[in-house]
Each structure stands twice: as structure tokens, then as C-alpha cells.
Specification:
There is one protein chain. The strands form two sheets. Strands 8-9-10-13-12-11 form a six-stranded antiparallel β-barrel. A six-stranded antiparallel beta barrel has the order 2-3-4-7-6-5. Strand 5 and strand 6 (82-92) form a beta hairpin. It starts with a helix and ends in a 5-residue tail after the last helix. It is mainly beta. It has helices at 5-16, 98-102, 239-248, and strands at residues 27-28, 37-42, 47-54, 57-60, 71-76, 82-92, 111-115, 139-144, 160-167, 175-178, 199-204, 207-217, 230-234.
Length: 253
């Protein structure tokens, strides 16, 4: 029990802080894409999103699972009480650069978690890469956990999704998404702290597949906050590393 206490405390502290998640009215998504999404809590107080891509394999971002901390998967019981599940191993892409990510530049912000046991009630999502060419106006769906209203921790713990479109010059290194209604110029749908590591889906033949992960966000017009840009690391350059790491752990994707 002593091992679990710091992480449980970190989770509760994070939920109480004025953190941010998908804002602007992101719809709850218990089914569909939401059935693959898990909550990741760290002993340093960070709180992120991950996606199940095999029975005991979770995809997330590198900046959420840095060395020197312990990470757990959070499951919620019938009465929304958090229960912590063990992570067996963490793999961070060797090319990840924290300074680049913090400056909103492209980097290998990708990581995998190997779990001790399959999460209850979750179904793995399909892994893919964006259809090329990636063009401005292309449609994607993001999803994540965390609070939906700044400062209201009670709004956390529900998977929410939002439909966004690519803006600027999207490519295989980075994709920037905006709310199609607000275009990033005023408050709209978008990802924030707590959604980091969340999946970015694209509808392809056969259904929705994960084509990227949420790395960073801004407020309107590139300012501080959320509801402006959502920065995505596409999996185009990193899918082979994911497959190789999964195979080394005994998972065939």
C-alpha cells in the first residue's frame, strides 16, 4: 500500500488543480473511439491520456512518461472511484526531444506502456498512419480524459471526443488542428493538459484508425491556454518503432 499512496495522492491532486482537457463542449464518448482510451497517472502529479492498441499495450506521448517517476493506469469503478493498475514497462522513442516539444516543434513524442493486466472493459484500437497527402481542411477526431472546464476537477474522468480540421501546412512531422467553426481565432474545441497522449483518429476504409497522438495545445491565436491549436505528432515516421517495440514485448499488431 505504501507504493500506491504517492500516485493516488498525485492523481487526486491533479484532479483538484485547474487543469484543462478537451474544451468547448467535447462530446462524451463511452463507445466507439472511447472504448480504447485509458487514464495515465504519474507519481510526479502528471495526468495524461493513453490508447489501448493491444491487450496490454498502451500508446501515449513521451513527455508524459519521462524517467524518474512511477506510472499507473487508472480505472474507474461503478461509483467513479479510481483504482490504480500496474505498468510493467515504459518505452520512449529514442529520438524524442523535450525542448523541441515545449517549443511546439516536431519531435518523436511517442511512447508505449506495457501493462501487467488488460484494462477492464477496454477494446484495442487499430493503429495506422495518416492518408497522404495530408492537406489543410482534412478531418480528424481527437479524444482524451481530464477536466472539461478549467478549475473544475469534478468534470474529470470522462472520455470526450471532438472533430477538428488540419490547418497551415500539415505533414508527416507535425499536424496542427483547429475547431472548424472558430479556426483557432477564438475559444473553440481543442485539447489541453490532461489530453496529452490522447489518440488522433482518421476515418479510413474499414473505420477509424489512430494516426497520431496529441502533443501540445495553445489558446486562440497561439496564446496561452487551450481551445486554439492542437499539436499532433503523426505516426507516419514512428509506426515501425511502435511495431518493433511491441514485437519485442510479445505483441503482434
Amino acid at each position: 500500500m505504501k507504493f500506491l499512496t504517492p500516485i493516488a495522492a498525485a492523481l487526486l491532486l491533479t484532479l483538484a488543480l485547474p487543469a484543462r482537457a478537451i474544451v468547448g463542449g467535447g462530446a462524451p464518448s463511452a463507445e466507439g473511439v472511447g472504448r480504447a482510451i485509458v487514464t495515465i497517472a504519474g507519481s510526479r502529479g502528471n495526468f495524461c491520456t493513453g490508447t489501448l492498441i493491444a491487450s496490454k499495450l498502451v500508446l501515449t506521448v513521451a513527455h508524459c512518461v519521462q524517467p524518474g517517476a512511477t506510472y499507473k493506469i487508472v480505472e474507474y469503478g461503478a461509483e467513479k472511484q479510481p483504482q490504480l493498475r500496474d505498468v510493467k514497462a515504459v518505452a520512449i522513442h529514442p529520438a524524442f526531444n523535450m525542448q523541441a516539444m515545449l517549443a511546439h516543434r516536431a519531435t518523436a513524442d511517442v511512447a508505449l506502456l506495457q501493462l501487467e493486466a488488460p484494462p477492464q472493459g477496454k477494446i484495442p484500437a487499430l493503429l495506422g498512419t495518416p492518408q497522404v497527402p495530408i492537406v489543410a481542411g482534412g478531418r480528424f477526431t481527437i479524444a482524451g480524459v481530464g477536466v472539461t472546464i478549467r478549475g473544475e476537477g469534478s468534470s474529470a474522468g470522462t472520455v470526450r471526443a471532438a472533430g477538428l480540421i488540419a490547418t497551415g501546412r500539415p505533414g508527416t512531422l507535425q499536424i496542427r488542428l483547429v475547431d472548424p467553426v472558430t479556426q483557432g481565432n477564438r475559444d473553440g474545441l481543442g485539447a489541453c493538459t490532461g489530453d496529452s497522449g490522447g489518440p488522433v483518429f482518421e476515418d479510413q476504409k474499414g473505420g477509424a484508425v489512430i494516426v497520431g497522438v496529441i502533443s501540445w495545445s495553445t489558446g486562440p491565436n497561439g496564446g496561452a491556454g487551450c481551445g486554439g491549436l492542437t499539436g499532433v505528432t503523426p505516426l507516419t515516421l514512428y509506426r515501425d518503432w511502435i511495431l518493433q517495440t511491441a514485437r519485442a514485448w510479445g505483441f503482434a499488431l
